[in-house]
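Listing S7. Sequence submitted for prediction.
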Amino acid sequence: LAALALFALVLVVFQYLLRALLLSQRRAEELAAMQLGVLTSLVETLALRDRMTARHSAAVARFARALAQEYKASKEWQELAHTAGLLHDIGKFSFPDAILLAEAPLEEEHWAIVRRHPEAGARVVRRMEAYGPVAEIILCHHERWDGRGYPRGLRGEEIPVVSRMISIADAYDVMTARDSYRRPLSSDDALAELRRVAGSQLDPELVELFVALLESKGLAFRHGDDADFETELAFERRVREYARPGRMFA
C-alpha cells in the first residue's frame, strides 16, 4: 500500500510538472512570436515603403548563409549569418522618404543619416532576448577591412567574421540588383569589383570564397530576384527555435 501511495504521489507530481512545463513552453512561444512578429512587421512595413528592401534582405540572407556554409561554419553560425542578413537593414526604418526612395546619389547631409542605420538596427534587435549576437553583426556590417568603415572604425579581423560575410553579400546584391537607381552590373563585373576592393573594403579571403561559390552554383543562384522574404524568414520555425531551452544564439 505504501508503494502504491508513493507511486500515485509521483504520478500526480509528474502530471503537475508536465502541465507546468507545457504552459511555460506555450508562454515562451507566445513571447517569441510577439518579439519576432515586431521585427518582421518592422521589415515588412519598411518593404511597403521601399519594395527592394525585403527582396534585398532575403537575397543577402541567402548569400550569407551559403558563404558561411562554404566557410565550413557550424550550423549555428550559418543560422546567425542568415538571420543577420535578414535584419541587417532594419535600421533604415527611421529613414525619411527623401533618403529611402532616392533616385539619385545622396547628398553628404543625407549620408550622415545613412551611416547611423547600423547602430539604429542593432539597438532594435538587441532588445530581443538571445539576439545579442545578431545585433553585434548588424552593428558591424559596414565596417571595412582597412579600418575606414563605420560606426567604430574596426579593422581586419577585429570585425566579426559574419559581419564580413554580410558586407560581401550586401555589396554583391546591390551591384547586381535591378531595383535601384543604379544600372545593374553583370555577375562577372560585380565579382570583378568585389575582387578590386578586396583587401581595402572587404575581407580578401572571404571574397575569393564567395567568387568560387557563385561560379560553382551557376547563374540561377547568382541573383536574388526570386528570393522571398517570408520563405527566408521561416517564421514558425524561428519561434520554436527561439522558445526552446538554450535559445537561438545564447
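Caption to Listing S7: primary sequence and predicted C-alpha cells for the chain studied. The mean pLDDT is 79. The chain is about 65% helix and 0% strand.
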